[in-house]
Amino acid sequence: MVEVGGQGRLSTDEFTRRLRAVGEEGYHDKHPFHVLMHEGKLTKGQLQAWVANRFYYQALIPKKDATILSKADDHAFRRAWIHRIVDHDGTREAEGGIHKWLVLAEAAGLQRAEVESFRFVLPAVRFAVDGYLFFVQTHLLVEAVASSLTELFAPSIHALRLPVFEQHYPWVDRKGLEYFRSRLIQAPRDVEFGLQYVLEQCTTRELQEKAILALTTKCHILWSLLDALYFAYISPGWPPPLWDK
Fold first, then answer.
1. Positions of the chain with pLDDT under 70
2. Which of 24, 44, 82, 135 ranks highest by number of CB atoms within 10 Å?
3. Number of separate domains in the chain
4. Is residue 54 part of a domain?
């Protein structure tokens, strides 16, 4: 099939390869901050900063997924997608991914109320995470779904974090690692549906390229979160003025 402009639609295999290549080249597991974390070289304060700042992203995920739901006309899609909100929010108190991240924060020595208040969230982290929600709000449904396909690359990093924390950060209470264990099950399930949806809905080369760009944008957003942490807490170690006031 050749489309207008001379670009033929990618085969399913090639489209899948292009999507996976985004993570192979640009997923944030390759960021110097994560490399230091996985080598056990972060200080207690640096690891706590990551936990507190990452929570701002965790807290946004259900809002992002609710936005995706609001774009969908297909009730079958909504039934398949809505469990993502339940995974993060739970159906009652003291369950769900957000709760588990707060347990991690407490296990790392942080106060739950301070983490929930976003007191320690760097401005650049806020801008990046808020920008992700804006992206989902202002782009096509298939682009929003494609941006969530970083789940393709997440299981390997979650699997790595469990032994890394146990070996290098024994001061973090083991009960705080349940979030990583749960995502080993949830992420592959989620990505199977999301990937199939993107493969089926991108019926033109233009849509395929938009999906690839959406996933690239999401990788850039996750990368920029770590840029902010690295700049503020590692090198040159310059936290912005007023951010924690």
1. 1-6, 244-245
2. 135
3. 1
4. yes
The pLDDT tens digits of the residues spanning 3-54 come to 544 579 999 999 999 999 999 999 999 999 999 999 999 999 999 999 999 9
* Residue with tokens 């301070």, as numbered in its chain: 114
Q: How far apart are the first and last CA of the chain?
A: 58
| Structure tokens given for 158 | 């979650």
Let me know if residue 187 belongs to a domain: yes
Instruction: Tell whether omega for the bond before 123 is within 30 degrees of 0, i.e. cis.
Output: no
**CA 245 – CA 242 distance, rounded (Å):** 5
Residue 175 · residue 104 · CB < 8 Å: no
Q: Which structural domain range is residue 46 located in?
A: 12-233
What is residue 162's three-state secondary structure? Answer: helix
Closest listed residue to residue 108, CA positions, set 54, 63, 44, 53: 44
| Contact (Cβ atoms closer than 8 angstroms) between residue 231 and residue 238 | yes
